[in-house]
Amino acid sequence: VSLGNICRSPIAEAVFRKLVTDEKVENKWMTDSAAVSDWNVGRCPDARALSCLRNHGIETAHKARQITKEDFQTFDYILCMDESNLRDLKRKSNQVKDCKATIELLGSYDPQKQLIIEDPYYGSEKDFETVYEQCVRCCKAFLEKPH
């Protein structure tokens, strides 16, 4: 989960989907991404995010959406990008009666200890590449953890 669901979280979703497909465990995972805000609902990911993913041989057909109450009841894990997302998600989860999701920073799995995955929206292609690399490290480490 990220603020707008057009940069970081679609990259993380696409990376995780490719990892579980490559590991042949995609049937064990339901993967999606969402936004805390409703600003970009229905939009495709940022062109720079799509270009970054394509450069790594990954395609996505994701359309931005806002997180729902059902997400907290359906998903076992909701992983987010920064402290602001974490606060917003925990506040929203407190309003859900039977929340089963563990809400964490995706960066908490980073072997390089980069806790926050910064929003690259106002940055350059290099910033999108940094997000991609962080997502790969974090998603691999998350997937290796016993669930």
From TrEMBL:
Family matches, as SUPFAM superfamilies: Phosphotyrosine protein phosphatases I (SSF52788)
Keyword Cytoplasm included in the entry's annotation: yes
Pfam families cross-referenced by the UniProt entry: LMWPc (PF01451)
InterPro entries the record matches: LMW_PTPase, Ptyr_pPase, Ptyr_pPase_sf, Tyr_Pase_low_mol_wt_mml, Tyr_phospatase_low_mol_wt
Reactions it catalyzes: a phosphate monoester + H2O = an alcohol + phosphate; O-phospho-L-tyrosyl-[protein] + H2O = L-tyrosyl-[protein] + phosphate
Single GO cellular component term: cytoplasm
Domain Phosphotyrosine protein phosphatase I positions: 1-145
Keywords: Cytoplasm, Hydrolase, Protein phosphatase
Top-level class of the enzyme under EC nomenclature: hydrolase
Active-site residues, Swiss-Prot/TrEMBL: 8, 119
Database matches in CDD domains: LMWPTP (cd16343)
EC numbers on record: 3.1.3.2, 3.1.3.48
Location relative to the cell: Cytoplasm
Gene Ontology molecular function, alphabetical: acid phosphatase activity; non-membrane spanning protein tyrosine phosphatase activity
Cited function: Acts on tyrosine phosphorylated proteins, low-MW aryl phosphates and natural and synthetic acyl phosphates.
Family according to the record: Belongs to the low molecular weight phosphotyrosine protein phosphatase family.
Protein name, as recorded: Low molecular weight phosphotyrosine protein phosphatase
